[in-house]
Every structure is written in structure tokens, then in C-alpha cells.
Amino acid sequence: MENRDPARPGPGPATRLLHPDAGTFAWGATLPPVFQTSAFCRETAEEMEAQFAGKAPGFLYTRLGNPTVAAFEAAMCEAEGGVMAAACASGSAAIAVTLMNLLSAGDEIVSASGVYGGTLDLFRDLAPFGVRVKYVDRLTEETLAAAIGERTKAVFAEAVSNPGLRVLDVATAAKAAHGRGVPLIVDATTVTPALLRPLEYGADIVIHSSSKYINGNGSAISGVIVDGCAFPWNADRFPALGEYLRYGKGAFSARLKNAVWRDIGACLSPVNAFLNLTGLETLCLRMERISENALRLARFLEEKGVPARYPGLASHPDHAIAARQMTGGMAGGVITLRTGSRGAAFRLLNALKYAKLVSNIGDTKTLAIHPASTIFAHASPEQKRSAGVYDDLVRVSVGLENAEDLIADFENALKAV
Ligand SMILES: *Cc1c(COP(=O)(O)O)cnc(C)c1O
Q: Closest by alpha carbon to 363, among 393, 333, 388?
């Protein structure tokens, strides 16, 4: 598949992921060595002093930086077209430190409703710190104009929401947020840079749970924040950035890396960075195959008369946005379907042979879950409604199996429903 973006001359995204600027590593290794060490020593006290003063390059302590983790951060910058990246122990940690970097007590963020359940929990748990979250159903010029106030510090949304499958019109949301002096933060976990690079559409900060498609094998939990360094941070709206405002458009990442991110200590382990780097090498190929499989399965379900929701289907309310915004019209691997009742959903899940019952998405294998009784078990009825989590809903994260086998598996399991 031709996977080139006219807005980004040079090699295509798959080539970029396989041939990072850094070239090969020590001894000609074609993969980065895993620097599985807590700390890095210096020959002299003078060198140590210079290092601590930030006057010498190199690494000190893995919580503050590690060569393998840095290679993953550089690869994510390259993949997203970003300038700075900070890897984290999980996607949730990436969201938490991003918000902590911007917010003070009394501040607000505006979020798309129907975001990932763990993110809703995090937003709720920010309340004791005096942080309020205003939810908006659809991020448009009008809804954002009404929601963004004086104390709003960011607009947050998922590129394709999990599990609601709403598609964010990134350019529209970015324009509306910027018009009111606020950055747009996009959780792009479900799309990955293989399908959409939100920075190119005007988003300011991209976050991933790289535990999902970026790692790709379900072998490690991790997260990453990528900053486009294009937002004009200023002291009036963002006093929390304090002394780091002198870095101008780099202020967010400067404070993140030198303060909040390192203080919280949710650093990525070097081994997990390595696993993500090997995952990134095949990301474009996997997302193509996953998108193709998901489209075939969604079409099969629709033809069978099963209410299936997938942004790649013409029947999806946001299909036009997905088709216009995503590389090659690919729509990723998450499908939801309605089974008629909770009992029917359980029967379907129990009858599936290949789809594994697990709570995550973005594995090589097909995964399925009943969100209402699991990842949304603690959500309010209103949160469930706005996330599109109905009692009969099943979420499927389509994997890399042969599409015919997946279709046969669902055809058979649907008989149990
Ligand atoms: C999984 C997920 C997260 C949380 O990431 P973890 O790595 O599990 O902490 C955040 N956002 C989305 C869209 C996710 O799917």
C-alpha cells in the first residue's frame, strides 16, 4: 500500500521506522542494546558535577534517562513528526504527568466524553486536587467555544475513542482550541502514527498507551508523550510552567523532563523500551493487516445483520472523517457489535475460539471483551451511555490471523447467540 504523505516529503513512514537517523548502534548492532542498568558512572568528580549541572551530555540515572529509552523516544518523535518525547511506565502515567505538568488547583480541562475507562477514572481522581473536567460529546467549534473557560488548560480527546469508536476531527478541534489559547492533547493509542499523525493536523501533544499497537505483541506496559513544540505557551494562561516559559514553544517538554516527569518517577524500563522498538519496526505492516482484517470482519457482521460499529464501514457516523484523515482510509483494529442482550454477549464471548478474553487491545491475536461488566464496571450509567457502552456490547480488537478464520470463528459463535 502506498503510504506516503504529501505533507511530509522524504521516506514513507514504514521506511522511517526501519531506518532511524541514528543508523546502527555500538558494534554495528542493528537493534539498540538494552542498557539494563540503574545508573551510569563518571571518571571524575568534575565530570559528575558538569553532568549534574546539565553541562555535559550523557546519562546519570535511568529514572532521568537511559540510552535504550532515549532510542524509543527518538523513534516516536520520528514516527509522529514531533520534537520532544517522554516515555513513561504506562499510558495512564503518560496522561497523568501530561496533565500535572499543565494544571494547578482550580484549573479545568475539557475532554471528549466517552474516552478510555481508565482515563475517566484518572480524571475523577484528579478532583481532590481541585481539578475539574468538563465533558463534551463532540469536539466542534461550537461545543468547544461553550466549554473552554478562563481556567481551561487543555482540550483532551482520543483520535478514535476506545470503545466508543468516535473519530476526532483533529484539525477542527485544534483550531477551536487554539482560537481560545488552549492546546489540544490527543490520545492516539488506537490509531498509531501508521494511520494518523495528529501533530500534522494541528494537535499539540500526542499520547500513546504504547502497551497496545506500538508494542504490538502485548509483551509490556508503557506509554509515551510526543510534543510538537509548536504551541505558544504563555505566562498568563500557563503559570504552572513557571521558569520553563523561557524555553518558548519548548516550555511544556522542558518542565516535563526537568520536573514533573522525573519527579513522579513513572519511567519506562529499558527492556520495555527495547520491546517497543522491535514492535515499531513492524507497526505499519501490522496496522495495514489489522485494518484489512477488521474491515472484512465488520463487513461480514453487517451483512449478517449484526449491528457492528467500525469507522471503516460506510454506515459509521464518522466514516467520512476517518476516510479523509487516516492513511489509506485504514481504520484500525477495534470493532464493536451489539448482540441483543448481556446474556447473548456472554454466550458469544464464550463460544469464540480464537478471540481471547482479555481486557486490552492491540495484540497480534484477536481479543474480545464485554466492556459493561469489566472495564466500565465502575463507570456511571451516564459515562457508559456517552462512551457507547451498552449492556449487549462486545468489543473486538482484531489481530493478525487469517481473516477467513476469524470470520468463520464469529459465524460459528454467533450461532450460540
Ligand atoms: C490502554 C489505554 C490507555 C491506558 O494505557 P495503559 O498503558 O494501560 O496505562 C489510555 N488510552 C487508551 C485509548 C487506551 O486504550
A: 333
Mean pLDDT of 17-41: 85
C-alpha cell at 185: 492533547
Crossing angle of the two packed helices 67-80 and 270-281, in degrees rounded to 10: 30
Residue 280: Cβ-neighbour burial (10 angstroms; 0-12, 13-18, 19+): buried
pLDDT surpassing 90 at residue 197:
yes
Q: Whose CA is nearest to atom 7 of ligand 1?
A: 91
- The domains of the chain, with CATH numbers, are 13-279 (3.40.640.10), 284-414 (3.90.1150.10)
Phi and psi for 395 in degrees, rounded to 5? -105, 135
Per-residue DSSP letters for 56-77?
Answer: S-S--BTTT--HHHHHHHHHHH
295: closest CA among 310, 314, 317, 283?
Answer: 310
pTM of the model: 0.96
Cell numbers 485544534 correspond to 174
CB of 277 closer than 8 Å to CB of 215: no
> Which residues contact ligand 1 via a Cβ below 6 A?
90-92, 116, 118-119, 158, 162, 187, 189-190, 209, 211-212, 221, 223, 361
Nearest one of 169, 192, 52, 177 to 109, comparing CA atoms: 177
391 Cβ neighbours under 8 A, 6+ residues apart: 341, 342, 345, 372
